[in-house]
């Protein structure tokens, strides 16, 4: 059986703000829709669900994020995920220039949780809170260029 990762889905409170953040980092919107009806109830397992969605793709074409903002039922606000909690954790991106990516993130009010770390001679990386409290890891591979 062949398998490949299709996308990572993230529920957000403000779809436009999330799209702005991720497109400013370099992703591209490849589709948008509003979904509801029996097929979504069956697929998602949530009666009466109705959501606005956007599919974004990384520049290399290999990674996709599906962002969705629920219209119905009303979205449930939860505390943002902590780095050590069990469950969906974070979305991670490799970037060519971490400092530039952090400047972009800062324009959206997003800053590192603590700072930028260096992992051996392999990566400079950081975690930050993106839109809707999403944990986002940005990593710049060292020694490339």
Number of β-strand runs: 8
The CATH homologous superfamily of the largest domain corresponds to 2,3-Dihydroxybiphenyl 1,2-Dioxygenase, domain 1
How many distinct helices? 3
CATH architecture of the largest domain: Roll
Note poorly predicted spans.
none
SSE order? EHEHEEEHEEE
CATH class descriptor of the largest domain: Alpha Beta
Percent of residues in helices: 10-25%
Task: Give the oligomeric state of the chains in this entry, treating copies of one chain as homo and distinct chains as hetero.
Answer: single chain
Please give the radius of gyration in angstroms: 16 Å
Taken from the alpha-carbon principal axes, the silhouette is globular
Distance between the termini: 37 Å
Structural class: alpha/beta
User: How would you characterize the largest beta sheet?
Assistant: 4 strands, mixed
Mean pLDDT: 92
Per DSSP, what share of the residues sits in E-state strands of 2 or more residues?
35-45%
Give a verbal description of the structure.
With 145 residues, the protein is an alpha/beta fold. It folds into two domains: 8-72, 2,3-Dihydroxybiphenyl 1,2-Dioxygenase, domain 1 (Roll); 91-141, Roll (2,3-Dihydroxybiphenyl 1,2-Dioxygenase, domain 1), CATH 3.10.180. The protein has three helices and eight strands; from the N terminus they run βαβαβββαβββ. The protein has helices at residues 15-24, 38-44, 98-107; strands spanning 8-11, 28-36, 50-57, 64-72, 91-94, 117-119, 123-129, 135-141. A four-stranded mixed β-sheet has the order 1-4-3-2, sandwiched between helices. The radius of gyration is 16 Å and the shape is globular. Keywords: Metal-binding. This is VOC family protein. Residues 4-141 form the VOC domain. Pfam families: Glyoxalase (PF00903).
